[in-house]
């Protein structure tokens, strides 16, 4: 294959790269000593070679590794006629290609979109075999998952009448859903009627939400804290987190009535939308009506009160204390989110009451009485995917409430919700791209970390590596043996607090009294210390949850 200029060769190789799913960069160039013109040039895959180490044995702590030593390249040389001819073309790569829908994120594709490559009438095979460029038809490529699902408009009547002040809004919702379903038959929506056959409650989920639930629906946060009209119409999203610890929405409801019957209906249609699959754990607020409905419809699902909801309620009930006091908010967060042991949590709670003179506060007395339902020091046997910490980092509450004005039209809310979901999916797309192009840095040349870095997403590996780093400061104080079972007492160096780690040598199972694996889904530093002590350098596969891996959606 010949090119009129060096620039033409670069553009052609760049178009080929975007079709395949990799990026390129300019490598060596030979120039004439006589006139300085280019004699030959090589373009390589952007993952060619390895980054030079200028700072000692290891990479800088926050510098991700992008190179894999890939040998793919194209070399061109100037011919007597002034044109450039391909003299060597290596097609084999040692890494995965990115999907077409993320090709625009590749470094060399900032100015070249996938569509532009298609419009150039290039095909991969034509470039690889050096044949002439001929027009070709290329089918549209996208990353939309397909799920065969026939939505049904379900109607369950309430035995009483509901307020009619939202009738006009309901008609807008109904028309909006009908249009959405005509455009996409996989769009699911359902209405509940009252005694006068008037629509009172509604639920909907698009195909992306349904697919997200299929992959990450083990933990659901049911949030009814948003209000569309004052004292009415809770806007209720079903929230979850993906394998990058990013927020995702599984479905949304608008409820004019929050009776047990309404919530039972809502959980029924939610399960219908999700093909009957029930979550392992559902987190809600302290509402007793919600708890009653869950006990009836989801009796096998672990029901916990989300500590994030308790935190939000605390800010409201204690606004006279928190107003203008960053120290109180920081102390409250520390008490609610940073203490995984009961005695530490109780001590911190008492210290908070002492410091801010809150012993007589009735709401705090009431909420402390139900601490077993919400505090992270309790119920750690139930998998929660650390969703409370993710909710704390997100600003979904503030952003949504800007669109939940009591006198506003409802359609802007729908449009904003679509934008939120779209933005979240794009962030996941960016995270997937980054995951496939850059390797997280390691603390050192450590077998355990090198192995864990392969399956885990970068965010989860970061959490795992922090646990491994913490285990370096741990010591094993005592060990008792009972057959194949070994019980180790582990503590931080020169600290009295001990954790009990049990290891079964017959099948390499391990458990810790902190129950971090059961609660979050990654091994704790105490378990990692014992595994290292018994010379197990690779984490057993049973302790690498698929939902935290790069293949979570496979």
TrEMBL record:
Keywords: Metal-binding, Nucleus, Zinc, Zinc-finger
Keyword RNA-binding: no
PROSITE patterns hit by this protein: ZF_SWIM
Molecular functions (GO terms): zinc ion binding
Pfam families, per database record: FAR1, MULE, SWIM
Xref: InterPro entries: FAR1_DNA_bnd_dom, FHY3/FAR1, MULE_transposase_dom, Znf_PMZ, Znf_SWIM
Signal sequence segment: none
Nucleus listed as a keyword: yes
Cellular component terms per the entry's GO annotation: nucleus
Domain SWIM-type: 499-535
GO biological process: regulation of DNA-templated transcription
Protein location: Nucleus
Function comment: Putative transcription activator involved in regulating light control of development.
Family that this chain belongs to: Belongs to the FHY3/FAR1 family.
Annotated protein name in UniProt: Protein FAR1-RELATED SEQUENCE
Organism for this UniProt entry: Vigna mungo (Black gram)
